[in-house]
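Question:
Write out your own:
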Amino acid sequence: MWPGSPQPLGARYRSGPDGTPGTNFALWAGGAERVEVCLFDDDGRETRRELTELTHEIWHGFVPGVHPGQRYGYRVHGRWDPWTGARWNPAKLLLDPYARAVDGEFALPAEVYGHVRDWPHQHRADTVRDERDSAPHVPKGVVVHDGAPAGPPGSPPDDDWRDDRRPKTPWADTVLYELHVRGFTMRHPGVPERLRGTYAGLAHPAAIGHLTRLGVTAVELLPVHQFAHEDHLLRRGLRNYWGYNSIGYFAPHAAYAASGTRGQQVGEFKRMVRALHAAGIEVILDVVYNHTAESGELGPTLSLRGIDNRGYYRLAHDPRRYADYTGCGNTLHVVQPQVLRLITDSLRYWVQEMGVDGFRFDLAAALARSPHDVDMLSPFLAVIAQDPVLRRVKLIAEPWDVGSGGYQVGAFPPLWTEWNDRYRDTVRDFWRGALPDVRDLGYRLSGSSDLYAWGGRRPYASVNFVTAHDGFTLRDLVSYHHKRNDANGEAGRDGTADNRSWNCGAEGESDDADVTTLRRRQLRNLLTTLLLSTGVPMLVAGDELGRTQRGNNNAYCQDNEVSWLDWSLLEDPRWRALCELTARLVRLRRDHPVLRSRAFFTGRPHGPDGLRDLAWFTASGTEMTEADWYAPRQTLALYLCGDDLPGRDETGHPIADDSFLAILHAAPTAVDFPLPGPPWAQSYELLVDTAAEEPHAPGTRHPAGQPVRVTPRSTRLYRAVREP
């Protein structure tokens, strides 16, 4: 063991002072008394080396002859005093928080708990130290070779990004597509079986081909940081499928690798990113920095708890307990410098070395607490705002947590975009006929200026979505009134009961032709509304195929056909037509800047004809008055004027576009809608009619002033034809 260096943290393969290759190990463990790095051979035999150097609370040393592929972990010595939050236990092998690859899975037998899990006195269950060795039962970190070859001999190194071109899609032009790496390809017939469920599977041309046909600009990947399965799931024969249980913030989840887990997963992930970039698709990671897989005081000791429990976690007034703003047992103590460094080092690593283009932060309000209340001037948000790398990537907040004052929709600073659940709830309520009036709908369709028109924020601060991984799929939203979560083994207690869904007259799958026809129309209505709304639309993988989870609205533990995409749905012409409509709406949005405005509408006249940039109409074809917004109604039409749009093109010239009229009609009876006459238009070309099973062929024109019969519960989109 040589002294080595305290920087950078983690295990880094390099040459020593005399040119001898080896690995430098560096671990922050503020209150520890002694630290050992433990090396494991292929047979599981352990060799321990003590890190004798301590610099600024970082234990470090250089071990000659340790090469990439070497498996390792740490044992950290210190006091066992749960009453003060001290939980050091050298019998537990700990995963390096900076490990870049992980080999093996957490099985969570009793040996991996720092305390005696089956202690007979439950009120003291977490206070008696367990002396059994956990090493045989936990995965190990893997030393990774920076710049390892990406493929066959002669291929470029993994860290050679010279041929990579980041799409850098502007926020206003972005269409997000939330998907699960494993579930997206597990049943894809065009992906080779050995690659299904992996990073390589997502990089396969058959998988990317679907994304490019849809026209989405970014994939938002459910968590790919190394995560662990919860003990209560393993006992029921289930697994954590979504992955919101992180334990390694630098390591791609090993189970998603087709090429191996001794460091090969790093290169495979990078090649996936390159392939998506080559197709013009950005990669955004859903990241979980608010808590870890170690849970509360009765959880396992896997990494941070055994390194420095008091340094990494927010403890309650009673230091035996954890402050839990996440509902997952613990909360990372982000105001602590070393925790803030861990998070920002991880984020920069994924941007600079793994090539990703942005992040969606799970329960972001928990990261903004300093020390207890949510604070938009918190250290985390301040550091992100000034970081030269992170302030340039896409940042999406899930703007809430489960603690007091945690709901913060519309409150994040201008650098951020946010998941807008008020959009989700309003659109669901409108199409199920539950809105008292259309005031809220008007805000949601036009970019939610009531939430975001402050501090220089733009309409693309709102990520609009109707569904997400958490909740009903789009098809289940129109097929179920009640959740069906029995398969999760929690007696139906899990998952929200407030789904704002409508089953169209029958619960669950139905053979009634009227019911199924209405359901497909409702799907078209919801997708059309989403993709015509101002803001950033987010689609969920499979919704365009009519995917169902059989009413399960919390399928976090269903790593099976319940969650995996069923690509055979495309063999049914009805679902294929839904997919084609989705792609057509995305193309319309891409081709027409008026549908993705970069600035909030003003409602004031502008352009050569003096038309307002946004106008609203009642079902009788008259412009909305103030009183109309407060009256019960189930029909709303909006006119988007393409004259003189905000901003300029790349050459500094004004931007002009077509003008459009959209009619949203949620009533159960038809309506004769008079198309607005001059100066709005002389005639209207029908582009989309959700009453039609097949995508409508453009070209049909209707004279202005003529009433058009709008089918019950349907949407129409017209292009306004204005003569000079």
